[in-house]
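Re-run with default settings, no changes from the original entry. Doing this only to confirm the output is reproducible before filing.
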Amino acid sequence: MQEISEHVYIERAYPGVTLGAINWPHGLILIDSPFRPEDVRAWRASLLNLGGGVERLLVNLDVHADRTLGARAMECTVVGHEKMAQVFRNRPVTFKAQGNETGAEWEQYNGLGSIRWAPPEITFTDKIRIYWSEPPLELEYRPGPAAGAIWAVVPSQQVVFIGDAVLCDQPPFLAGADLSAWLKTLETLNSPEYANFTVVNGRNGLIAHKHIQNQIDLLRELHARLNAMAEAHAVVEDTESLIPEILKKYAPPAYLAEQYTHRLKWGLSQYFTRHYQSNGAAVEEE
C-alpha cells in the first residue's frame, strides 16, 4: 500500500483495478475492490492496519466487472452513479464466469465461480459530497468511458481518482463508451482546474498529464475513423481492421497481445453497433 497524500492510499498488488483508501476519523472510504475472493480477504486485512473510524463505504467508479465483482464481499455500503444501478437492474442477480473474451482482467483467472452482484445502495445523478472530513469527498459524474463513470475527488489533498478515463499502457474499454462525452471529460481533466492534482487512474496508479493528452489523441483519431467508416456504410466486422494500428501504440508483450486484441474486437463491435447501427440502444457492459 502506497500513501500518495495525507490519509490517501492506493494499492496495486491485486489483479484488476487500482484500489484506493481514504482514512478519515469517521472511517474508511474505499475506491473499488479486488475481484478475486482471496484478494478481497487480503485487502480487508491490510485495511485493518490503517486504524481510523469504524465505518466503511465503497465507491465503485463505474460498472466494469473488474471493479464490481468483489463489491459484495467487501461487506460495506456501496455508492455509485444512478446509471450504474440501472445496469445492475438489467443484469442477472448472479454473475457466472463464462470467459466471454471481452479482454477484461477477470477473464484471465479461474475459480471465480458464481458471485452475487452488489448494486449501489446510495446513488446520485451529477455530484454528491460525503462529509466524513472537512472539506468532504466529492463524487462527480464524468461520462464517457463506461456507464455510470465517476471521479472521486479529494479537494483537500488535490487528489482525483478517475477510473478508466485514462489508460497508459493498454487499450481502452470501448463497449460501453461514448467517445464524444469521453473527450469532453478528458478536456476537463486536462484543464488548469486539475493542473496541480495527483491523478490516479483505475489500472496503472499514478499518471502524468502527458498520459491524458495521449488518451485524448487516441480517442480523437478513433472517433474520426469510426465516423468515416459509418459514413462509408461499413459493417461491424470492418472495425477489426483498426485493431492492429491501435495495438501498435502499446506494443504489448506476447502474453497480453491476445487479451488486448479480444478487448478491442469486442469493444469496437459493441460501440459501432450501439452508436451507428442501433441508434444508441444499450448494450451490456464489459
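Confidence is low (pLDDT under 50) at residues 280-286. Residues 254-277 form the longest helix (24 residues).
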